[in-house]
């Protein structure tokens, strides 16, 4: 069971990294643009998130500087290759589409937070992305924070249960 949980968690991190940091990550997850390349993922990995924002790849290391970054990059790429060898990109896309259709409010909270996070970072407002998203949906910051943490995991869990394959078989 532990290995399955680890695979789900790793896939969730990859989904979140793509959504948050890859050029056109959200459209890629929805199949509107091609799958991000390994180089796109590498670039996304080095576009460091703020400490409070993501599921991010956490690597224990006593080193620092460039050597540590290369080790973290290698771990992320190995993680990506390992996960993607077990599932297809089409399964991920189909599952993301299914999740968006079945849980539109949760998907929209996740999407809106990601978009607001980048615009707020760009100086388009004083209020934080979390508060702005919470206000937009009439919920607390806590609900947004939990939703943002939960959506990639729920999608990864659905992939592990075959939702992507089921959607492909249905011809969605």
Can you put this structure into words, describing what you see?
By secondary structure, this protein is an all-alpha fold. The chain has one domain (2-170). It contains 9 helices and no strands. Helix 5 crosses helix 9 and helix 6 (104-121) packs across helix 8 (141-160).
List keywords for this structure.
single chain, mainly alpha, 172 residues, 0% strand, globular
Poorly predicted runs = 49-64
Number of domains: 1
Mean of pLDDT: 78
**Radius of gyration, Cα only, in angstroms?**
16 Å
The profile of the biggest β sheet is:
none
> What's the number of extended β-strand segments?
0
- The shape, in one word, is globular
Order of helices and strands: HHHHHHHHH
Q: End-to-end distance, in Å?
A: 30 Å
Going by helix content, strand content and strand pairing, the class is: mainly alpha
> Helix amount, in percent?
over 70%
